[in-house]
Design goal:
Layout: H1 13-24, H2 36-59, H3 62-69, H4 79-95, H5 100-130, H6 143-158, H7 166-189, H8 194-197, H9 204-219, H10 224-256, H11 258-262, H12 270-283, H13 290-322
Keywords: Membrane, Transmembrane, Transmembrane helix
Protein name: C4-dicarboxylate transporter/malic acid transport protein
InterPro entries: Voltage-dep_anion_channel_sf
Length: about 325
């Protein structure tokens, strides 16, 4: 009898984050009729509920929980659960504001989950710093910052007057701690190649900055000049990280070919959809015009591409399993 069966990948909350930020921002660029919007939103909320419930059921297993809590890198993927719930709540508040009382209860529970999560994050930050050679940290640990800022954003929508900026600053502290740990690994402990050792989740380097900038906007506690400067820093980080990604893609194509090198599904790829969507959300409060429209379509096309790859690879795996 197998007792440690994995129901769902712990990082599956990234799927909820990716589609949630799309519905909240760039979906408005698509020429949907008004009647289609509730359909897409209902499908999203149904899928999000299914994923989050599956994650909760899996976490209720003591055997799974023991291994997950003691993994100092993969544990950070729980941040997708917190952020996924927050993003889903933000979508509900945008399209169905009358559900605010119910959303408030959900976010209160999500805040308790966040407290549990961040306690273990701090413990694992200490372990990663103390024994850097024992682990290979990557962008997933920056989800501590993403989860923090996602709660700052949704609480600022639910609660008036504006919440003090302490939450935003704590999120930036989590970002700094994670960035230092990851950079130290790649400069001093990594022995792999760019093609194989660089993680998809490293796009969260700029995604965590984007959601931090968006939290600054929503909090109302930062000046326009500060937010503008932060946007330029985020844009520079995006260009730097995505330039590395282009070089990495070229090397992976040379080594593995197009399909295996860049067009094979992995759940961590949803993080890029979220980070690009989050940059669109942040940019929409700082800039307008061509940049915003172009970036909105980049978000839409990336999400469509990732969905196609997911459906293709899932169908292939299902067919193989059915054939025995």
């Amino acid at each position: 009898m197998v007792t440690n069966r994995k129901i769902i990948n712990p990082a599956a909350g990234a799927i909820v984050m990716a589609f949630g930020i799309f519905l909240h921002t760039s979906m408005n660029l698509l020429p949907f009729t008004p009647i289609m919007r509730p359909v897409f939103i209902s499908l999203f909320l149904t899928g999000a509920a299914g994923i989050l419930i599956a994650l909760g059921l899996q976490f209720s297993s003591r055997e799974f929980r023991k291994g997950f809590l003691n993994n100092p890198v993969n544990f950070f993927s729980m941040g997708t659960w917190v952020a996924g719930i927050s993003v889903s709540a933000k979508v509900i508040l945008l399209y169905y504001p009358g559900f605010a009382p119910v959303v408030t209860v959900v976010i209160a529970l999500n805040t308790l989950l966040y407290g549990y999560y961040i306690y273990h994050c701090l413990r694992h930050f200490y372990n990663l710093w103390r024994t850097p050679e024992a682990h290979a940290p990557h962008g997933v640990i920056l989800l501590a910052a993403v989860a923090t800022q996602s709660l700052v954003i949704v609480w600022n929508v639910l609660v008036q007057p504006d919440i003090p900026p302490l939450g935003v600053l704590f999120g930036l502290l989590m970002y700094t701690a994670g960035a230092i740990v990851i950079i130290r690994h790649y400069f001093w402990n990594s022995k792999g190649t760019l093609a194989d050792d660089w993680s998809n989740t490293n796009c969260i380097f700029h995604g965590a900055l984007s959601i931090s900038g968006f939290a600054m906007v929503v909090s109302g506690s930062f000046t326009e000049e500060t937010i503008a400067m932060f946007w330029w820093g985020t844009f520079a980080a995006l260009l730097f990280i995505e330039s590395i990604e282009l070089v990495r893609a070229r090397r992976r194509i040379r080594k593995y070919g197009w399909r295996e090198g860049v067009f094979t599904y992995h759940i961590s790829q949803w993080s890029r959809n979220f980070t690009f969507g989050m940059f669109f959300a942040f940019t929409s409060h700082v800039h307008t015009g061509l940049l915003l429209n172009v970036w909105g379509w980049v978000v839409i096309l990336l999400l469509a591409g990732e969905s196609i790859i997911f459906l293709r690879d899932t169908t292939v795996k299902t067919s193989r399993w059915s054939a025995g």
